[in-house]
Each structure stands twice: as structure tokens, then as C-alpha cells.
What we know:
This protein is an alpha/beta fold and 271 residues long. Helix content is 47%, strand content 16%. It has helices spanning 2-37, 50-64, 68-79, 82-93, 110-120, 134-148, 183-189, 205-215, 235-242; strands at residues 124-128, 154-159, 176-180, 194-199, 219-227, 246-251, 263-268. A 7-stranded mixed β-sheet has the order 3-2-1-4-5-7-6, sandwiched between helices. S-adenosylmethionine (SAM) is lined by residues 43, 110, 127, 129-132, 134-135, 158-161, 164, 182-183, 200-202.
Amino acid sequence: MIKFLKKFLIIRRIKDGLFATRYFNYKYFQILRWMIYSKEDTNYTYDLTKKNLDELYKLLETIFNVNYSKVKDYSEELLNNIKIKDYLKNKIEVSDFKNFADTEIKYSRRIGWYIIARIIKPKLIVETGVDKGMGSVILSEALIKNEKEGFKGKYYGTDINPDAGYLFDDIFLKKGKIIYGDSIESLKKIDEPIDLFINDSDHSSKYEANEYKTIINKLSKNSVILGDNSHSTDELLKFSIEYGRNFILFRERPKNHWYPGAGIGISFIKR
Ligand SMILES: C[S@@+](CC[C@H](N)C(=O)[O-])C[C@H]1O[C@@H](n2cnc3c(N)ncnc32)[C@H](O)[C@@H]1O
């Protein structure tokens, strides 16, 4: 009898296990499709699901006290901007790194960065870690739009890799610059108030914490900090607790991509 029950239990658990695999199997198809159609090997780009975009809009509405429809307008302003997509596509196609980037332009969580830059109209944006420069371009595009509305601002990016930032060119150069070298050293030299800070360089917890420590006395009164590491470390959360700032994490849900998504840690002062 016991033998029979044991055999029954094993069969049931195999059935249960097969059921559980249904939650993961489609990922293998996504990996296969990505291997065939994408060229990216790091810093993946993808669209966010419609539900995830709505989650982002509602979250930003709550944090910044701006209507959902206004937040959505800012997002669509970027998503429907064919000129900027064509610009990025052409830049990738003629670059030496074209075999490592996709020409179908997808912004992932950077849509959130753009919307925030449009809402808060920063005078200075600092982004550590620029890689190809997609963030640099869309943040500068937000500054160009802000300036048309009477709010002037500039952008500084930092990167240790001298080849980084090849997308940041043309009209975008008028909005700022990339400072090459170790990010901590570059941050030490900035002597203007930072309104929007984006941490996206060395993704170790220690380095991330060090960046926040370096900029604490350079932040403006209503500064916003975005952590690109906040889905995997608690450094921005701890920093926000220590300095009496609010903190909310937006989690990405990529559309048709195997990558589980990163996030935007948002550290802010209540307005
Ligand atoms: C994830 S990528 C940045 C992605 C970029 N923000 C974007 O929007 O696509 C990380 C970048 O950080 C740079 N990096 C790594 N360690 C660094 C350091 N210590 N100082 C400055 N940049 C660093 C890398 O060279 C790489 O380009």
C-alpha cells in the first residue's frame, strides 16, 4: 500500500513539475527569437507592455502630481517621434558598433526618464554610464522640448569607456557633453546643482552607494534621483531613508523579450 502511494506521489509530482514548466517554456522561444533577430549582448532594449506603461503613467501621476493624460502625452511625444527614431537608426547603421545594436528603436524604461525630465524641467541632468548614448539622446531631446517651453537645461553624461556615447551627436551636442573617465572622479568636479541624477554606470552596490555619497551636497532642493540598479540593490532605498527622501520602485515588464526587466528607483522630495 505504502509502495503504491509513493509511486502515485512521484507520478503526481512529475505532472505538477510539467505544469510548472509552462510558466517558463515560452522564455526559451523568446531567447531563440532574440538570438536570431537581435544583435544585442548587453544593455537590452525592448518595448514595455501596454499595462506596464499605464502602471508607469499612474505612478508618475502620483509622485509628481501631474495628470495621467499629461504624463501619457509626454510619453507619446517620445514614442511617436519618428525623427528621433530615424536619427538613432541611422547613427547605429553607420557606426563601428552596428553589429552590437538593434536598429528597431525601443526605449524600455528610458521612457520614464524622458517623462520625468519633461515634468520637472531640470536645469541640470547628470547621467552616469552612457553606453551607446540612447539615454543621453532622449534626455537631451527632453531638454530641447523644455527649452521651447521656456525652460533651459543642460545634460552631462559620464563614462569610463572612451568609445561610449556614439549616438550623442548633432543637435544633441548643443545640450551638453559626455565627461570621460571614472564616474566618481567626474562627479566630484561638477559644481552646479543637480536637478535630475541618473545612476547607470558600474552596477556594483558599493560603487552605486559611492555615487550617491559623492553627489549628496550637489543636489538641488527638489532633486530627483533615478537608480537603474534599484531592482537588484537597496542602495537608493537606504540613501532615501537616511536623507529623508521618498522612494518608489517602478518595475519593468518587457514585451516579447526574455529579459525579466529592470526598473527605475525614484528618490524624490515631496512637492
Ligand atoms: C548599462 S550601461 C549605461 C546605459 C545607458 N545609461 C543607456 O541609457 O543606455 C553602463 C555604462 O557604464 C559605464 N561604466 C562602467 N563603470 C564605470 C565607471 N566606473 N565610471 C564611468 N562609467 C562606467 C560602462 O562603460 C557602460 O557604458
